[in-house]
Write a structure and sequence with these properties.
By secondary structure, the chain is of the alpha/beta class. Helices cover about 55% and strands about 10% of the residues. The strands form three sheets. It has a five-stranded parallel beta sheet with strand order 2-1-3-4-5, with helices on both faces. Strands 6-7 form a two-stranded antiparallel sheet. A two-stranded antiparallel ribbon has the order 8-9. The longest helix has 29 residues. The N and C termini lie far apart (about 40 Å).
Amino acid sequence: MPSVLVVDDDPDIRSVIAFKLQRAGFTVHLEADGEAGLAAATEERPDLVLLDWMMPRLNGMEVCRAIRDDASLEGTTVIMLTAKAQEPDVQRALAVGADDYILKPFSPRELVSRVQAILARPARRPTDAIDRDAHGSAQLPRGWQPRVLVDDDMVVEGGLGRSAGANDPPRNRAFLVSAAQARQSLFDPTGLLEFADAGQVSELTEMFSDQMTARLPALGVAIAGGDSKATHEIAHGLKGSAATIGAPRVMNVCDAICRAAMRGEKDRTAALHSELVDVWKDTAGAITACLRDLNR
């Protein structure tokens, strides 16, 4: 039975991934930070590591580099799982040895398909197959593009992809039709219901609610103290959780906070935090109403 190590500091994302992979027949080991993840990789020697980028202690890039530098882990497949969507980020991940790169938010069904497909490939060192320009910089494989979070012209379920076309599965085409409405949605459990029943959706959304309740005040403290790094880290984590749960408005405000924090715009982040508090109140109400309908 193939084994997968999931290293992500977001408990909601770990739970979703573990549930789906276990149902697909994988043995799953979970870790919440880079240091523990690297230790587990060394001890467990999994077939594949799903690795978040931004984590405490060691980040995903450092863990990936350490895995590639360890001769005993040479055959280990590494997939980066992150919300960092810019092309230079993809290039950096490939350059340190990642085999693939999946963007949050992602479809759990697609993630399992990608894991299955990449484990079926012949074993190789991924850095051997990366094209480089005249300056030695890693180049994206031809046809690869980072997918955006929501876009009418793209397949938007996460991961490296391409423009949507006639050969895309019907589910993807249906999703694209409703992309404009999804931008205005407070809570859409469609992705969760691909693999979870109403009771499990309730459990996952309760975890997300607990996370929002705990981290919103911490985010406010970081903003008030002018701590741009902590502000970005907290907002980034909430953004990934919101994307996974299906709370696009929370996700969008968190993304705006991340961008403002990176630019050092304290007043802007403070205003966005106030907006996030209001959006979360509306979203929490939408979750409650949706769960009530699901459990009828």
